[in-house]
Amino acid sequence: MLFTVNHLEGIKSGKISLAFRKWKKQSVNAGSRINTAIGIIEITSMAEYGRENITAEDANQAGFSDLDRMLSLLDKFNEGTIYKMGVRYISEDPRIKLREQTDVTDQELEELLEKLKRLDMASNQGKWTIKILKAIQENPLLRAADLAVKVKKEKEWLKLNVRKLKNLGLTVSHEPGYTLSPLGEYLLEKAGAEK
């Protein structure tokens, strides 16, 4: 579920407390938490909502000064159900703190390597985690499509799996491409040769 930077800042500051989406299939539920560019956002409520019931006050709480503007954005989608959801800011993205770490203990490093090993074992692509980390290290900020060619993987496969590495605090996403986090650099320095 995507939010614009302005809407994210509004949610973080508390000025925005609602969001409206038109979906063919509901993609989040009340209680869902979403990692975003500004941190973790929680969906506090979720309900199907008729277009005719949306008020100017609703639009304002969703970050729009103009009801017609918000409705025109919803109307861009011909099919689907409109959902009204409460949103609130929870906290900074814990991956940010995680990825800045370089003073991990031997046990923490071992646990991280074990997680990479499980990702490798669960994949039908064989051992890929260290290979992808090294490719990112050698090709910082390279577009995902070009990096996928370099590592001989499909672009969507690469993006999905780099996200798994990001969730462990090992990579940082940019526009375009990726870099290793300080933790990712540390892991390769300390353990890359062992894998």
For the structure shown, list the relevant keywords.
195 residues; alpha+beta; Archaeosine Trna-guanine Transglycosylase, Chain: A, domain 4; Arc Repressor Mutant, subunit A; 2 domains; four-stranded antiparallel β-sheet; two-stranded antiparallel ribbon; 9 helices; 6 strands; elongated
Explained architecture:
With 195 residues, the chain is of the alpha+beta class. The chain folds into two domains: 5-92, Archaeosine Trna-guanine Transglycosylase, Chain: A, domain 4, CATH 2.30.130.30; 95-194, Arc Repressor Mutant, subunit A. The chain contains nine helices and six strands; from the N terminus they run αβββααβαααααββα. A four-stranded antiparallel sheet has the order 1-4-3-2. It has a two-stranded antiparallel sheet with strand order 5-6. Strand 2 and strand 3 form a beta hairpin. It is elongated. The model has no long low-confidence stretch (mean pLDDT 89).
